[in-house]
What does this fold into?
Amino acid sequence: MTDKKEISREKEKWEKTTLKKVTDRFPEMKDEFTTGSWLPIKRLYTPADRKADNYLENLGFPGQYPFTRGVQPTMYRGRYWTMRQYAGFGTAKETNERYKYLLDQGQTGLSVAFDLPTQIGIDSDHSLSIGEVGKVGVAIDSLKDMELLFEGIPLDKVSTSMTINAPASVLLAFYIAVAEKQGVSKDQLRGTLQNDILKEYVARGTYIFPPEPSLRLITDIFEYCGKEVPKFNTISISGYHIREAGSTAVQEVAFTIADGIEYVKAALDAGLDINKFGRRLSFFFNAHNDLMEEIAKFRAARRIWAKIMKDKFGATNEKAMRLRFHTQTGGSTLTAQQPNNNIVRVAIQTLAAVLGGTQSLHTNSRDEALGLPTEKSVQIALRTQQIVAEESGVTNTVDPLAGSYYIENLTDTIEEKVFEYLDKIEELGGMGQAIEKGYIQKQIQDSAYKYQREIEEKERVVVGVNKYQTEEEPPDDILKVDPELRNQQMDKLEKVKEERDSKKVQKSLQSLEKAAASDENLMPYILEAARNYATLGEICDVMRNEFGEYQESIVL
Amino acid sequence: MAKKTRILMAKPGLDGHDRGAKYIARALKDQGYEVIYTGIRQTPESIVQTALQEDVDFVGLSLLSGAHNELFPKIVELLRENDAEDIIVFGGGVIPEQDIPVLKEKGVKAVFTPGTPIDEVVDFIEEHTKT
It folds into this structure.
């Protein structure tokens, strides 16, 4: 094999001869090239750019530590990723119809979008719910709504992902209660709870309680599911929203993994076994337009997490070291201008996720910068995944870009930079402290600001926005949620309250209150209240009284 | 010298997507305006209260959840009730084109949709600043 020194020597020669002849006459477009996240890029990568050329240690084989090449040995040769479109709007009944449509179109898993009142644990009749009911997701007030949401969908046959954080335990309880009514036992349930509160404090904003009780609720879910709902992914540690808030690719991975470290610490403190709960941790990342950087990002994330679980936390079961992840294409990359261009962006991002080895994927619809997606747009988004899966050929071999000098160099670089951040966060006293001090928020905002300035200065091109603009007619087929929806939802809620056994409700809420003041696992109490048709708002109010509410620290 | 133009950037409703609001706040600050940012999940009442207390000239609203038709006009109305209709309200976020004329009719002076350059917002502020 040619050695690195010789390659470097030959490269220098090439630079002085062949290259120079061209650049003297035709200079390159820029002095410096970078990735979408400002990592410097060389003109050309060669084997001399590999930092440590230790194949077995750094790359290895898919399905084995350090999982750089993938979490399963056969990857998409065995089965494609789960095509899972995040959906939900209006009432449970409307959303149920959309789910049945998606399943009918070949989608393989469900993903529930809840409206904002549901996400912050208030009912539709709360004054803060005005204007928000059914808007960004489906409105769920009680078990009744959840029954309608999954009517005719056998819960032992689908896997369901729920984007729910602060009140995750309550929505999980509703889900279990629906399964009970369908005659499906808990150990048959498959799916994922987002259940990641730390990123809500820095990026997404749907927190309710302060960090400490929130972490307790999370570890209660880990423990409960470990025993009762063993096939459920108990958390989806999410970088998606951190990236949407404007972070770089490196920051996305670094802060997500730092959140992961915090959850592992909390679970260990609660006395749980890392080899058990570690297997049910899952992750959620964004896919942006810089194809190579994104692919390298996913590969680096897998290797970093494996190292941390093994070296830092002493996991011995390899399954507890695997970083399994869901991907969503980048919402913030969609443009309101020339919305059909978004189909192309989403296709590139889909490739990034698949070449990066994702386990499941949501592709955004072209019209999501304008409002809720129409059925037609959702179909194109799903077809994009199906074309990549069944026509592009990239699924035929595992981790096809491994060994690319550029990809491996980027993977190494991202890993190195992520570990630098992790050290810095450790120095600050861990992720809890780093968030409290505003460090994470500031890092994200500085990147977001820089990014937007570049667009304003036209240093960063966004096709249709700051280059190649055209005059356009506003699209007319925007999906609208009926403004009367809140009233309908309130009527339904009132009816539930009339029909339920209010003594049972009160009793189960009182038991929950007592348990919340102790250190008992809250899941069984929440489940009992859910079965009795206590509402989401009532259950969360009990916990609000006990735990208090989080106040945002504003960092600008 | 005339007093500096004061702008309140506010997030009504429940959505936590504050990237846009924070960008506009910071960019306007860089342009030399005095900018106050409320943080997320503010009620119309608390936004109006802050606007009055801080004696601002403009209130910029950012909302991505779709609740703008209910919440933006409510803020204009509350300002009027408090004899503060001279405070100019503008907004932005994921706002369908069809909703913009309705919002303007109800007293929202301008709506800036995704992709608007900051210069347009600055021009708007300059144009509507009392001299």
Chain A touches chain B through 46 residues (CB under 8 Å).
